[in-house]
Amino acid sequence: MSQTPASVTTDPLRSSTALAEWAAALARAAVAHVERFGRGATQRQTEQFEAWLRASTQMLPLPRPADVIEYGIDFVQRQALFWDTIRVRGDRWLDHEAAGKPPLLAFAYDLVLDGRTLPHPVNYALARIVPPAGVSVDETRRPYVIVDPRAGHGAGVGGFKSDSQVGMALRAGHPVYFVVFSADPVEGQTLRDVAAAEAVFLREVTRRHRQSPKPCVIGNCQAGWAVMALAAVEPELAGPIVINGAPLSYWAGVDGKNPMRYSGGLLGGTWLAQLVSDLGAGQFDGAWLVQNFANLNPGHNFWAKYYDLYATVDTGVQRFLGFERWWGAYSVLNGTEIRGIVENLFVGNRLAAGTITTEDGRRIDLRNIRSPILVFCSEGDNITPPQQALNWIVDVYREDRAIKAYGHTIVYLRHLSVGHLGIFVSGGVARKEYREIVATLDAIEMLPPGLYEMNVREAGHGADGVPVYDVSLAERSIADIVALDTDSREEERYFRVVSEFSALNAHAYDVLASPLVRAGATGSGAELARLLHPLRVEHYGLSSANPWMATLAPWADWARAWRRPRRADNPLGAVERACADALTAWFDIGRDLRDSAAELSFRALYGWLDALGLPGRMWNEPAEDASGKQIETLDAQVERFVDEHIARGGPAAALVRLLLMYTQARGEFGREAIERIVEGVRALPLATALDPAQRRRLVHEQSMIVAYAPERALATLPELLPGAGDREAMAATLSGLLGAEPASPPVLALVREVRAVLGLPSAGSSADLPVVPAA
């Protein structure tokens, strides 16, 4: 006899209370959306009116005939140059297609390994970037391996121009490798095959650089969570991991700002991706993903970017064509790949939850990662907001002491405004954030286990006029991550309902519809459908293949030869700009109205189902939360570790321990402070034989002791320095390493305690005390 579903026996009073709470929450959300939409629409309308007023004032009483003629000539010439640029974009797209859609890198490269030759072939390959003229690399320095996202676009976003991730690493003297992929997948390849290929690539890089530290792996967007999953399964492969704009906690976000996370629920889950794959004869056209990205901001993608080209057609053509070259390079995924991505990440959120398993039954647990992790995200990113990039830390570790108990070092860096694509393609971001990430990684690897926030501030300009930046690393807590989520995470329970319904819908589609769709799909039909996708038609339809567009060349040549741009103060130019901004504002109002309706519809449907207890409480009992037991086990392990190591290591351990204490007293880690710790270890004879890995292990061991047993760490210093000469030498070494700048009160207090414990006379002045200079 079948078991009665749990929801059938639910207390009616409890269900009524849940429904009342849902209705009240929905009403509050509706009011908040109306107020937010009203404020945004009013602000845009006010700005539009003020722009019109300024433009009209400049034209009163009427524009001069000379201004009209000047504007008319400029208008016609810009039209010619604009449409000719669109034609060139189409021609370049056709050339790229004819060339086999190669990676769009701005750097020459040599192919090292082709994934098609592996036991489980994939369309990925490992390429070694050839340094451009004037740039040299040191083969003994840490190699960088950059993995690009395969999320609709082609490979190359991490290096499609000089100021990029590739460019910054090369200029710093590092060997650089790039994991590229072709636009079409190998038949039958899976996400696990791709992960296995990337593991082979990392081993090959390590083999080629045996004298170097382990490679730094950079994962962009979708590749970020793929790199994290690989590092969790094979933690010995990589050195520091940098993930940029990577959605590891896809359910997270802020109300009214991150509408993309609701799309899975509103579309019924993963079944639609399965349908598109079946119609594509087993392949999913990545142009649909690009279309989704474009639809997020229609005002920019369908109007403003083209007007910006039109307005700056004398200076902005190459920038436009450079970006469109990558934006229009569409890739294809196998149906099994897109289904795995959608089920495990977008709808299921299973990576952060640790419920994905490998083929041999191993659970992908992000706590298995041993490498330092740097997370780069942006407040201006509406595709992967900081909550999606960072909340996995909360879900995986739960408490600050768990991060330290596992010996993990996690650093996050937040940009305040750049959008999702800007994280990867902005030259300003590359010259600032990525340059400093490359310069700071070695120091980050020496950080004590814990959670840190990296801040990059401009500190002036060098003699060559290039900005100089100050980098600091401030220790943070899980509470700081939670505080970044300005809304409660309560709404994430709605996404659990989505996940359950998605599984039901996917199963129903597999049984009832998929066999029929696949029987009617053909390879030629799928290829025709891809060719007729609107984004592709936009390119080849507006190329020289179109006879009407081919006639533009003489018109554009005339415009260039007789170019007469209007004056900046021409009043008709202000009217044009006001009209363009008004159209963008109306696009934005429509977008905001659409997004508000989508979010409220999501909350109404899945909040109601959640209040009824469907389907999660009907089919799945909640799993027992074992985090408390895990923390208790970790605490016991750490206590044993401290007992075993607290009196071991001699002067080298004592020096590292003291430097960590002083740096902790400062409350902020800078590059210089961390480098002093490293130099302090190297300065002692006992540490000269240690390799970098052993020095890092020494720092991590002492940081665990300082974090978990600070009083015992101080009290046992005499055991590490048994001789009076050792203690005097330690005081002298510290004074020389840390300088003689005025110390802060916490540092002064710590120095007095250290001198008392070691039996040294108290210092006469702060200048005699070892202090950590300001970072």
TrEMBL record:
Top-rank taxon, per record: Bacteria
Coiled-coil boundaries: none
Taxonomic lineage: Bacteria, Pseudomonadati, Pseudomonadota, Gammaproteobacteria, Candidatus Competibacteraceae
Listed Pfam families: DUF3141
Membrane spanning stretches: none
Organism: Plasticicumulans lactativorans
Protein's recorded name: Uncharacterized protein DUF3141
UniProt xrefs under PANTHER family: POLY(3-HYDROXYALKANOATE) POLYMERASE SUBUNIT PHAC
